[in-house]
Q: What sequence folds into this?
């Protein structure tokens, strides 16, 4: 947790990368209109604050100076002051705690009051509610065949029956998620199947198992459970909500596959899917620049159809990865983005 801000904030800075014509790994560039100090207010994110001071997001760890006398210096709260100093001619950012209202009985500030790296409300549901699985895994997963009394749809508190074989490691598990396949992702360049996106619509307890028939009692539902919905083990571990900014180990290029909220034009804080994932080495926190394909125009002299260069138009940060697909949040967009726009790791 003590490393929260270094990573978190660096990622935030990535937004200003769009407006930097070149990034040099060892050169610290301050924003042209940077302040000498900034007072954190409620509603700020570290991304916003970082972009206030720096042009190059990757250099945040180099300029963040930790004061060992401050508890949890990597957590920033409303009222705190971030100020700029120069050490040996190099800029550094430091933190000064703002006023705190302390009760005589307890002197702790809840971590939930610390400002987040990014607007978590924009990705909260996608962190835990969506899965992308290959065709074989989807076809092997048990599926709902009926509700009690042959109900077509079921909700929380109802009993449902599913058919299928549980894998050995799943037999001892008692709690399962109910997922509905939503779409098949296909690579726009190669035609390869990348996986089926499935949305969580509920969860329930396994109450009985007889041959290949499973009996489950639904505990939670966000939609009505229907026939052919899949029964899958719930993901293990805590949901990741802190992201360490980074670039991919090797240069990567890809395409935007979809925008998950179903809009036509993609803007800031929309969630997108890209056709690169764990297989290519993509990790949560990786940042990609978005390029709009250049327009095709007719050469006025030769009358040839030519394609203009691609234009940089946005910046996205990956927050969840699967084997061949990743989800990313649009942190900055200088124009409306669209499906099939290119994504490239910054170099």
A:
């Amino acid at each position: 947790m003590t490393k929260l801000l270094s990573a978190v904030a660096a990622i935030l800075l990535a937004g200003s990368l769009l407006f930097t014509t070149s990034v040099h790994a060892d050169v610290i560039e301050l924003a042209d209109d940077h302040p000498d100090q900034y007072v954190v207010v409620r509603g700020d994110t570290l991304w916003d604050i970082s972009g206030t001071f720096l042009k190059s997001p990757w250099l945040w760890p180099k300029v963040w100076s930790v004061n060992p006398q401050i508890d949890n210096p990597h957590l920033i709260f409303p009222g705190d002051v971030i100020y700029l100093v120069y050490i040996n001619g190099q800029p550094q950012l430091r933190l000064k705690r703002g006023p705190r209202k302390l009760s005589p009985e307890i002197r702790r500030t809840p971590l939930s009051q610390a400002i987040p790296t990014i607007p978590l409300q924009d990705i909260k549901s996608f962190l835990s509610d969506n899965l992308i699985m290959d065709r074989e895994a989807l076809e092997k997963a048990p599926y709902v065949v009926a509700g009690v009394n042959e109900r077509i749809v079921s909700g929380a508190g109802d009993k449902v029956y599913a058919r299928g074989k549980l894998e050995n490691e799943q037999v001892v598990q008692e709690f399962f998620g109910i997922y509905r396949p939503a779409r098949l992702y296909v690579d726009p360049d190669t035609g390869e199947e990348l996986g089926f996106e499935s949305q969580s619509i509920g969860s329930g307890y396994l109450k009985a198992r007889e041959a290949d028939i499973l009996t489950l009692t639904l505990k939670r539902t966000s939609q009505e459970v229907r026939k052919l919905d899949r029964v899958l083990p719930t993901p293990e571990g805590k949901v990741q909500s802190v992201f360490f900014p980074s670039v991919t180990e090797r240069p990567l290029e890809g395409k935007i596959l979809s925008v998950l909220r179903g809009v036509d034009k993609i803007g800031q804080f929309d969630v997108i899917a890209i056709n690169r994932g764990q297989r290519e080495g993509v990790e949560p926190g990786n940042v990609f620049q978005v390029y709009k394909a250049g327009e095709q125009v007719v050469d006025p002299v030769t009358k040839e159809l030519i394609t203009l260069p691609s234009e940089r138009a946005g910046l996205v940060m990956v927050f969840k990865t699967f084997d061949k697909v990743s989800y990313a949040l649009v942190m900055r967009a200088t124009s409306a983005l669209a499906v099939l726009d290119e994504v490239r790791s910054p170099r």
